[in-house]
Amino acid sequence: xxxxxxxxxxxxxxxxxxxxxxxxxxxxxxxxxxxxxxxxxxxxxxxxxxxxxxxxxxxxxxxxxxxxxxxxxxxxxxxxxxxxxxxxxxxxxxxxxxxxxxxxxxxxxxxxxxxxxxxxxxxxxxxxxxxxxxxxxxxxxxxxxxxxxxxxxxxxxxxxxxxxxxxxxxxxxxxxxxxxxxxxxxxxxxxxxxxxxxxxxxxxxxxxxxxxxxxxxxx
Length: 219
What we know:
Number of strands: 6
Largest sheet: 6 strands, parallel
Helix content: 40-55%
CATH topology of the largest domain: Rossmann fold
Radius of gyration: 19 Å
Low-confidence stretches: 147-152
Mean pLDDT: 83
Oligomer: single chain
Strand order of the largest sheet: 2-1-3-4-5-6
């Protein structure tokens, strides 16, 4: 962490240049914080972490590059290699299951890009003093899903074959009615299979479902 004589050294990671610029501007409004390195891909981030000792990592959750687009695996690797490094994740996602899984990795800060300008300075202040920071929007998502989804993510292979079939067809843009007609099932049955799959995956609404299927290559 920063001392009285040294600014807080921060590494930034995001695959969108505009967000990298925005993150840097917001962070360096605090005269005691300094961005020492930036990365736009997972491998680049890992290299920057090796090259530049830092006090805090601020990173996007997903930085797709070739076959490596699993944000949780990247965070797991960083946590293994740098167990004491404070990490703030900034994301566009609204997925309670992913939020729970990130918090289980002892991610100290979790906030939305939509509220970055307002919440990032507060998150950095909290995390730099050894406290956690969970944005209001993330807290709402977790509370709304508390009685809906599981505590952690369930893998796709844990869905029943019929649930997975429905999820794939939904990902292809088909309506519940169209899926029912294609599979020769009732709308009620298809709807129940959709709801069951979403509960298992920790997805609280259709928007979260479509983000999930895109992340997992189902579209």
